[in-house]
Each structure stands twice: as structure tokens, then as C-alpha cells.
Known about the structure:
The protein is mainly α. It contains nine helices and four strands; from the N terminus they run βββααααααβααα.
Amino acid sequence: MLLFIDWDVNPEIISIFGFPIRWYGLLFASAFLAGYQVLSYIFKKEGRPVEQADQLLLYAMVATVIGARFGHYFFYEFPLLKADPVKFFINMVTPPYSGLASHGASIGLFLAFYLYVRKNKDQSYLYVTDRVVPTVALGGFFIRMGNLMNSEIIGKPTDVPWAFLFKRETEHELLVPRHPSQLYEALSCLILFIVLMWIWNKKKQYTREGLLTGVFMIVVFTLRFFYEFLKENQSSFEDSMAFNMGQYLSIPAVLFGIGVLVYAFRKKPETIQ
């Protein structure tokens, strides 16, 4: 007997005056709200003004949306971007934000942190990224749970007992039990958040610069590379590739994380903030 979880969740929670309130939107907003609480806690513990957390959150929100939307079009729908850049720009900044690429969001965030550091010269670049990556990991948990509620980014067919039968998924004709790949990534992000906060809590402001950033990049994108083997491709052009787009983009992210981690352990402890 084939065991599986019957997944038939309505992505819409309620409709108010014709305006739908969806699980994904609620969880997406929760990612920023929870991230802000964590970041404010970190800044308070290190004696920094909470106003800086407010400013950093604003940078992160704008960078996440623009970076993720641009990344989606650039990496997965480049012909549409090339054919009509004006329409792309309108779609990029206009809700609902269907189609978000985590690699694009990562690039956007790293650029935003650079702009933030230019205005807050009392903080180094890696100091800032180290304080933000735990919140990004927590945000990843909420966003992947939103994907699960939307029955999107589904896994490949499987006979594992925890497989999900996504009854509301419409992109694939074959209705069979599949890997709940969204849940795999969500739980991984939650565990990583706990680990990063544990590492930071041991030394707080004396944590080696780059340590949290390096660990985050290596863990997230190494897992992403292997999880992709369990997921359906997001675009048809990936079917003819040895690895899909998410895997190719994860490789430089992991290498970057390794480089940052090497830097963190080579830097003399007395020069760390």
C-alpha cells in the first residue's frame, strides 16, 4: 500500500471585499516581521541603536523584492526580459510578486548591504552580513512554507511514506505522490537559523567577522544544490541541461562562502570588532 500525505490546501485564506488574503503573502510578510525582531534583538544585545535595524530592514526589503524579481526574469525568463524590458520593469515592482528567485534575492541583499555600510561607516561589511544572515535563514523558512501552501516548487515523484499528493498543483499532468521539497528547504532553513543564533550567542559582537556569513552561504547553497535533484525543473529549458539553473547558480555561492570562511579564520582575533 502506497503511503502519502493528501495535500489539498487552499492557497487563499479569505477574501475581503474581493481582495484575496493568501498564505504566501502572509508568510512572506511574516519573514520580514520575524527577521526584524531577531535583528533588533541582536543590535540591542550589542549596544547598537535600534534605528539602525530599522534602516537595515528597509534596505533588505527593497533588495529582496527587486533582486528576487529581477533574478527570476534574468535567470529563468530571459527571453521575456529581452523582448520587453518595460513590461518586465512594471511586473517586477507590481504585486503580486509571482516568480521569485532566491539567488537573485541574495545578490540584491549583498548589494544593499554595501549601500548600507557606506552610510554607516561604524560597521564593516561582514559585520553587517553576519548579523543579517540568521534573519535570512529564518525568512527562508517562512517563504518555503509559503511555497508549500501554494503547492509550487514541487518535488519529483517518489514512494517515500512522507510524500505529498499535491492536488492543487496544475503544472504537471501526472497526479502522483511527490517529494515535499519546499518542506525540506523550510526545515533546513529553520535548523540553520537556530545554529547561526547559537554561534552568535557564544561571543556576540566578538564573533569572528565572516564566520556566520560563510557558514550560511556554504550550508544553504550546498543543500540547495542537492535538493534540486529531488525537485522538478522550474523552466523547460533546464530539461536539456546536466544541472539545472539553481544548481549552477549555487556553485559560485558555495565557493564565495568558502572564501569568506577562510578569511574569517585567517583574520587575527584582536582585530575583530
